[in-house]
Amino acid sequence: MLPATLTLLSRLPLSALYGLSPLLNSILYRFVPSRRAIVSTNLRNAFPDRETDAIDALARQVYRNYADVAMEMVKSLTIPAQDLQRRVDLRGVEIIERYLARNQAVLVTVAHQCNIEWLLLAMSLRFDYPLEAVYRPLSNRSLEAVMSTIYTRFGGTLIPDRTVVAEVMRRRDTPRILSIAPDQAPNWQDEAYWVRFLNQETGFFLAPELLAKFAGYPVVFVAMSRIERGHYRAEIRLLAEPPYRKDDHSIMQAYVDSVETQIVDHPADWFWFHNRWKRKRSLYG
Question: In this predicted model, what pLDDT tens digit does every residue of 103-150 receive, in sequence order?
């Protein structure tokens, strides 16, 4: 069950929730120094040419944006469909519709940029086909319940990352949208694609490429950007379509390039709180 306080908060107008953003921002910034250090280190390594003052200013904006997104996630529990659609401007939907009209599934890749919860909810409302989001289950049961409630409000489905291959095998030919955000650090046991990303050697989940090649799915990327507070633009772009070559990583490289461009253009909107580079290539053997 969801915490009652969270449900009550979600019924407040978004403007009122934004009034709580500075408090959340201050708590996170002042009282969680370990995360502040991770954010600063990540930004310095990603943008080595920027002065210390510029990095500090960017870090503060990262916190402000994240606090707003956190409030938006709370609002996701009760936000009306029409209001959500008004706040997420989906562009390029015809790219996905073209494949769905052929009874073909589409693999949608995203990054942890802006508010991907609102993005997936908006896509659930926009397309008359199932939207299934691959995710990593949370150990905290309360947070897991919140995430499950948010993602499934408008008919979406969550697929645990450890079962996605079985799900694809079982319903390989079912027209639907399968979404995945592989821009976080892969697990120790995961096969990774290693590439130069934001000035650092970085491992990426190979899942999008493996799934696309196995099932013959076309792959799109959705670039999300902040228009103004509480309003976003989401541009759907084709990354790759079959037939695929078995001996290259063009799908992953296209994804990495798209994510990096998005981050460089709008650095304050990526999720810098994650210790993205804690695992090194040598540990994979």
Answer: 999 999 999 999 999 999 999 999 999 999 999 888 888 888 888 999
H-type helices in the chain, by residue range? 4-10, 14-18, 21-31, 33-46, 52-75, 81-87, 93-100, 116-126, 141-151, 164-170, 207-215, 250-265
Return the exposure string of 125-153: e unless at least 16 CB atoms fall within 10 Å of the residue's CB, then b.
Answer: bbbebbbbbbbeeeeeeeeeebbbbbbeb
The candidate with the shortest Cα–Cα distance to 235, out of 153, 113, 151, is: 113
Q: Give the whole-angstrom CA distance, residue 150 versus residue 133.
A: 12
For residue 231, list its beta bridge partners: 228
Q: Which of 215-219, 266-270, 279-283 has the lowest mean pLDDT?
A: 279-283
Other Cβ atoms less than 10 A from the Cβ of 113: the count is 25
